[in-house]
Design brief:
318 residues, alpha/beta, five-stranded parallel β-sheet, three-stranded antiparallel β-sheet, 10 strands
């Protein structure tokens, strides 16, 4: 058979994700994409409690806060008002609000939930997007999001491999022994500074992760999402209109490759059952009073109950 693309070899993970596991995705918007697929398949998963984050330093800071016994409480002193909204430099713009009280309510509620669940995690899945960071000129704080505040207030830097490895090694050593960490690099390109510097940034991330996994082979692993997108799905039909982000088809393909590596045959069989139920639940109804629809709904409820009886840990209801 003629091959029309370079197939990336994805090693089978020695440990397998199951429905009894608790997971958290932290990192770039690509973490949002794969985390959303896990949610669709009814896994017990939390995705980006701080919102999408792109650089390893900010991701490490978030993980460090979530791993504490008691959650930090953010106050109005931690916010910056700009263009009519209150922002946190540690959070994505989805938390920003015209009301400082509402902004803090969302931030603190998300962190409380994350801290409560962090100690029970089986897997922490980390996606780095860029090695470039921005620090506030006043105070030197590394920000996760600039919130369109004037560039004159920040200084840009590029993290080194050694800085990333050092920070993450210290973080991993302080985390619970049984926690498995899966690293990946987002295939989404950061082209603000040009294609060449984007490649350098991605290379730094790849080298850093290789070193981290080498130091902690029993606790960490690497999933080649970046390589799959760059080599197997290099055609632009797999990119959205901005020519930077993957399409839904591309995300589905990377998700399938992830399942091949990290899911057991039993888990993949359950996923198929869940997908069948999801299709039934998403079915558009034109006459909800029809007897046929009522029978269809009862059948779907019975299928859900059968699945929950067999796998009580599955997060599904109808």
């Amino acid at each position: 058979m003629i091959k029309y693309s370079t197939v990336v070899d994805v090693e089978k993970s020695p440990y397998k994700i199951g429905y009894s596991d608790r997971m958290m995705f932290v990192g770039s918007c690509f973490a949002d994409n794969i985390g959303a697929k896990m949610r669709e398949c009814r896994f017990n998963v939390e995705v980006n409690p701080f919102g999408a984050m792109y650089n390893p330093a900010s991701v490490a800071a978030a993980c460090r806060m979530m791993s504490q016994a008691e959650p930090r409480v953010f106050t109005e002193k931690d916010l910056r008002r700009h263009d009519g909204l209150f922002h946190s430099f540690l959070h994505h713009g989805r938390f920003s609000d015209a009301s400082a009280e509402r902004c803090l309510e969302g931030i603190n509620a998300a962190l409380r939930t994350a801290v409560e669940g962090f100690g029970k995690l089986s897997y922490l899945l980390i996606t780095f997007g860029t090695a470039d960071v921005y620090r506030l000129k006043n105070g030197g704080e590394t920000v996760a999001n600039c919130h369109k505040i004037p560039a004159s207030e920040f200084v840009g830097e590029r993290l080194t491999v050694e800085e990333i490895v050092g920070e993450w090694s210290a973080l991993i050593e302080g985390l619970r022994e049984g926690l498995k960490i899966v690293f990946s690099v987002s295939p989404v390109r950061h082209l603000k500074d040009g294609a060449h510097l984007n490649r350098i940034s991605k290379a730094i991330l790849l080298l850093a992760i290789q070193e981290i996994v080498g130091r902690f082979p029993d606790r960490t692993s690497y999933f080649p999402a970046y390589e799959i997108m760059m080599d197997e799905l290099r055609d632009y039909r797999f990119y959205a209109d901005d020519m930077l982000h993957p399409t839904a088809v591309a995300v589905d393909y990377v998700w399938e490759r992830f399942c091949e590596s990290y899911m057991s045959d039993e888990t993949k069989a359950i996923i198929k059952e869940v997908e069948e139920i999801n299709r039934a639940m998403n079915h558009k109804v034109f006459n909800s009073s029809a007897d046929s629809y009522k029978m269809f709904l009862e059948y779907t409820r019975a299928k859900v109950q059968q699945l929950k009886d067999k796998y009580p840990q599955i997060c599904i209801s109808v």
